[in-house]
């Protein structure tokens, strides 16, 4: 699971360019052996298109796709290897288990197509299903499997062809919350055992953070940020990522410890920086006061926008010079008694703000 | 299909409050009577007492056997040619696909007699292919039992193609994509994934096709003639009996009616109750 050094050759080396009407996917992608990469992004960002391109179900308009040193896509040389001749296994979003085949025959389907005898294919399938804890469900048809079991059969089916590249499209999206928790842990174990490269497509940040070694965030067909879980969660670079990880994000110009935010508000931060920077702070770090507080730094007048429950707290959307989300504890909310349209003073302590340059870190 | 049946299945509670306006109810009942009365007349006028003897007449059994045999062979022919044709129409985007689809359905609306004439022009002795078939393989279609099969297949195949193409369009192509990612080529995917998925549609199409072939009259009598034992199928026998012996005609018709009703009952679950 440890990410290999940057110098080793990646197992998957691709630059996926796909045109679909006005939408263009332009995604460079490298995944090393044993590495799990999550492609994270909002709906319509092009994640599934990328997965289909890797599987060979969607031809590339430009770019290239190399797996374990073999070229599978080179549009400029009119080279496109069809899906059935790629060493790729796919777990589809709603699994797409063949409804007319038992769990065992679903998993044996791939090995059989790869030249194994019926008997050998079924033996391998039975082994795979035993590994995911389904030794007792071999003869069940997909419609008699629970959501979690179907997910495991789908994973076993994709892994039974021993793929160089394993692709998972929203592997947990079809499950209810309770099953999702168990299945996520189980999936994590299975992915750790997979010696090849793994690419996971998801819009759920939790799935991405738990399952992947590295995250690639895509928006509108382009990569907006890459990094490990810590980088992504502490240093978001777009509003989308900031929302995902629950941070307020603003862009400003730093001059030492003072950051001038575009709207004219200046924040004092702990980091000493110069030039264009991002500032990020959690909603829980924002304190609200009915009147102007005594502290001089990092206070500004704001208007209460929306109010929602957020776990045990209230989440207040503030408008004004800065659009910021603030979390109020029940006690604080009782004291302030916020109503939409009310003017309040917001305050953030410099130590709660993280500032980092906008340039590539 | 009965709309009333769907209401009954969909919302039994609401039917109570539904009042059917008379301008709709009267023609509806009249239409129903118009469809059912002739069939009732057939049953009422049937010579029930002499039915067993009449059924046992050699001519009747011969016609029935020939009908079942030719309709079955014609259906197998339609399956062998029609399922691939339906797949082509549903899955391959080729230029002129809409025109081909329209051409496939022409036999549905073409008067069968015209179909028979057209078959004669192509497969007749002096026809486009008939002379060549005769010279090369020694095969003659007109006025032979294979000619009956050809006439029935010509008229019945669109039913199969349309049913199977509909099933293919309704089937989720992503299953085929999943099969491809598991290493299955297009042919294997078709036989191992697509066909099992659309099996209900193929069955429905096959039964409809067989029923249509069994009842075929116009194209058969034009292209294959009316020779007892060779080309005289049940509908032709009914037509011939009508001129000599009405009771025999009724009995033969009853047999065909029984076959049709059996097919409808067999199909009811899979096909007719589908929303």
UniProtKB/TrEMBL annotation, chain A:
<keyword id="KW-0813">Transport</keyword>
<dbReference type="Pfam" id="PF00005">
    <property type="entry name" value="ABC_tran"/>
</dbReference>
<dbReference type="InterPro" id="IPR027417">
    <property type="entry name" value="P-loop_NTPase"/>
</dbReference>
<dbReference type="GO" id="GO:0005524">
    <property type="term" value="F:ATP binding"/>
</dbReference>
<dbReference type="InterPro" id="IPR003593">
    <property type="entry name" value="AAA+_ATPase"/>
</dbReference>
<dbReference type="InterPro" id="IPR050093">
    <property type="entry name" value="ABC_SmlMolc_Importer"/>
</dbReference>
<keyword id="KW-0547">Nucleotide-binding</keyword>
<dbReference type="InterPro" id="IPR017871">
    <property type="entry name" value="ABC_transporter-like_CS"/>
</dbReference>
<dbReference type="InterPro" id="IPR003439">
    <property type="entry name" value="ABC_transporter-like_ATP-bd"/>
</dbReference>
<keyword id="KW-0067">ATP-binding</keyword>
<dbReference type="InterPro" id="IPR008995">
    <property type="entry name" value="Mo/tungstate-bd_C_term_dom"/>
</dbReference>
<protein>
    <submittedName>
        <fullName>ATP-binding cassette domain-containing protein</fullName>
    </submittedName>
</protein>
<feature type="domain" description="ABC transporter">
    <location>
        <begin position="9"/>
        <end position="245"/>
    </location>
</feature>
Automatic annotation (TrEMBL), chain B:
<feature type="transmembrane region" description="Helical">
    <location>
        <begin position="189"/>
        <end position="213"/>
    </location>
</feature>
<comment type="similarity">
    <text>Belongs to the binding-protein-dependent transport system permease family. CysTW subfamily.</text>
</comment>
<dbReference type="InterPro" id="IPR035906">
    <property type="entry name" value="MetI-like_sf"/>
</dbReference>
<keyword id="KW-0812">Transmembrane</keyword>
<dbReference type="InterPro" id="IPR005667">
    <property type="entry name" value="Sulph_transpt2"/>
</dbReference>
<comment type="function">
    <text>Part of the binding-protein-dependent transport system for molybdenum; probably responsible for the translocation of the substrate across the membrane.</text>
</comment>
<keyword id="KW-0764">Sulfate transport</keyword>
<comment type="function">
    <text>Part of the ABC transporter complex CysAWTP (TC 3.A.1.6.1) involved in sulfate/thiosulfate import. Probably responsible for the translocation of the substrate across the membrane.</text>
</comment>
<protein>
    <recommendedName>
        <fullName>Molybdenum transport system permease</fullName>
    </recommendedName>
</protein>
<feature type="domain" description="ABC transmembrane type-1">
    <location>
        <begin position="64"/>
        <end position="267"/>
    </location>
</feature>
<keyword id="KW-1003">Cell membrane</keyword>
<keyword id="KW-1133">Transmembrane helix</keyword>
<dbReference type="InterPro" id="IPR000515">
    <property type="entry name" value="MetI-like"/>
</dbReference>
<keyword id="KW-0472">Membrane</keyword>
<feature type="transmembrane region" description="Helical">
    <location>
        <begin position="249"/>
        <end position="267"/>
    </location>
</feature>
<feature type="transmembrane region" description="Helical">
    <location>
        <begin position="24"/>
        <end position="48"/>
    </location>
</feature>
<feature type="transmembrane region" description="Helical">
    <location>
        <begin position="68"/>
        <end position="90"/>
    </location>
</feature>
<feature type="transmembrane region" description="Helical">
    <location>
        <begin position="102"/>
        <end position="123"/>
    </location>
</feature>
<dbReference type="Pfam" id="PF00528">
    <property type="entry name" value="BPD_transp_1"/>
</dbReference>
<keyword id="KW-0500">Molybdenum</keyword>
<dbReference type="InterPro" id="IPR011867">
    <property type="entry name" value="ModB_ABC"/>
</dbReference>
<dbReference type="InterPro" id="IPR006469">
    <property type="entry name" value="NifC_ABC_porter"/>
</dbReference>
């Amino acid at each position: 699971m440890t990410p290999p050094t940057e110098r080793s050759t990646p197992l998957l080396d691709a630059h996926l360019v796909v045109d679909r009407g006005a939408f263009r996917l332009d995604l460079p992608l490298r995944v090393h052996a044993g590495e799990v990469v999550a492609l994270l992004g909002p709906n319509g960002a092009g994640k599934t298109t990328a997965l289909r391109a890797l599987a060979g179900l969607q031809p590339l308009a430009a770019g290239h796709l190399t797996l374990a040193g073999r070229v599978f896509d080179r549009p400029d040389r009119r080279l496109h290897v069809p899906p059935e001749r790629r060493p790729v296994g796919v777990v589809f979003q709603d699994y797409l288990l063949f409804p007319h085949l038992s769990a065992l025959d679903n998993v044996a389907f791939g090995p059989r197509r790869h030249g194994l005898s019926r008997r050998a294919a079924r033996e391998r399938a039975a082994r795979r299903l035993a590994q995911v804890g389904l030794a007792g469900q071999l003869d069940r048809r997909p419609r008699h499997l629970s959501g979690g079991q179907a997910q495991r059969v789908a994973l076993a089916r994709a892994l039974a062809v021993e793929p160089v590249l394993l692709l998972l499209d929203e592997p947990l999206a079809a499950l209810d919350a309770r099953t999702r928790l168990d299945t996520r842990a189980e999936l994590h174990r299975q992915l750790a055992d997979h010696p090849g490269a793994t690419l996971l497509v998801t819009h759920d940040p939790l799935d991405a953070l738990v399952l992947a070694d590295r995250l690639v965030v895509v928006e509108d067909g382009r990569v907006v940020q890459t990094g490990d879980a810590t980088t992504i969660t502490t240093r978001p670079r777009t509003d989308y990522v900031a929302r995902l990880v629950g941070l307020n994000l603003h862009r400003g110009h730093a001059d030492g410890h003072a950051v001038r935010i575009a709207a004219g508000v200046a924040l004092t931060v702990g980091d000493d920086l110069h030039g264009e920077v991002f500032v990020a702070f959690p909603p829980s770090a924002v304190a609200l006061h009915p009147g102007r507080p005594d502290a001089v730094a990092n206070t500004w007048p704001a208007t209460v926008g929306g109010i929602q429950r957020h776990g045990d707290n209230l989440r207040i959307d503030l408008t004004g010079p800065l659009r910021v989300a603030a979390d109020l504890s029940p006690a604080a909310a009782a004291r302030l008694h916020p109503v939409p349209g009310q003017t309040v003073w917001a305050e953030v302590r410099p130590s709660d703000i993280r500032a980092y340059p906008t340039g590539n870190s | 299909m009965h709309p009333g049946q769907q209401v009954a299945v969909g919302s039994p509670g609401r039917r109570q409050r539904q009042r059917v306006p008379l301008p709709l109810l009267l023609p509806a009942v009249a239409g129903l009577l118009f469809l059912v009365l002739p069939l009732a007349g057939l049953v009422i006028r049937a010579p029930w007492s002499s039915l067993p003897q009449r059924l046992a007449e050699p001519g009747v059994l011969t016609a029935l056997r020939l009908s079942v045999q030719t309709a079955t062979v014609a259906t197998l022919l339609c399956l062998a040619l029609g399922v691939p044709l339906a797949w082509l129409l549903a899955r391959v985007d080729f230029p002129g696909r809409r025109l081909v689809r329209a051409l496939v359905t022409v036999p549905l609306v073409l008067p069968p007699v015209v179909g028979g004439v057209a078959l004669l022009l192509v497969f007749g002795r002096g026809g486009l292919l008939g002379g060549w078939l005769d010279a090369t393989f020694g095969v003659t279609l007109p006025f032979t039992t294979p000619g009956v099969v050809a006439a029935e297949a010509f008229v019945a195949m669109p039913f199969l193609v349309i049913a199977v193409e509909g099933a293919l369009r309704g089937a989720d192509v992503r299953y085929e994509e999943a099969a491809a990612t598991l290493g299955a080529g297009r042919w294997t995917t078709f036989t191992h994934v697509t066909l099992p998925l659309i099996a209900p549609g193929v069955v429905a199409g096959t039964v409809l096709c067989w029923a249509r072939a069994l009842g075929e009259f116009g194209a058969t009598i034009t292209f294959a003639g009316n020779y007892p034992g060779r080309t005289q199928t049940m509908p032709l026998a009914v037509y011939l009996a009508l001129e000599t012996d009405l009771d025999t005609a009724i009995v033969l018709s009853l047999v065909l009616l029984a076959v049709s009703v059996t097919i409808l009952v067999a199909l009811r679950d899979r096909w007719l109750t589908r929303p």
